[in-house]
Amino acid sequence: MKEILDKNALNRVIKRLSREIVEKSDGLKDVVLIGVRTRGVVVAERIQKYLLETEGVELPLGILDITLYRDDILRCDAQVQGTEINFSISGKKVVLCDDVLFTGRTVRAAISALVSYGANMGRAEKIYLLEIVDRGHRELPFRADFIGKNLPTSAQEKVFVKFEETDGEEGVFLA
Fold this sequence. Notes:
Elements: E1 2-5, H1 7-24, E2 31-36, H2 39-55, E3 61-64, E4 93-101, H3 105-121, E5 126-134, E6 146-150, E7 159-162, H4 164-167, E8 171-174
Parallel strand pairs: 2-3, 2-4, 4-5, 5-6
Antiparallel strand pairs: 1-8, 7-8
Helix pairs in contact: 1-2
């Protein structure tokens, strides 16, 4: 595997993305973070922590499980872990956090899950998409509002964003 971003570079990317959220959302009023399980949650937690340290604001943070909304559910071994969003998204600017944007199918599933969730908890004013890596090869017409790194790849290559919390190592890797 080839290292694309080391631990320090990944940390800088997350800090930059955090600052971009503040700029694009005209401050942090009505902003909430929702991480897509699993690594999107780590991204959201790190952004939440950084914004608390730098802006003095603790954004609400939710966890979105998209397992039941995947279009490959019958072909994958994903296990439902549950969605944990303990606040209303009504009128909020939702920053949907994930690690790698590839075909767009995860984004479609996440938006479907969020809209379904919103039926009970309100309609978001806006949904922003934040990705650590955009590697291209879209099958569905989605683009991220916040991108840590554009990384052109071949369709056969794989991109891994790894975090200490989930993988025991940290960085962005290409295989």
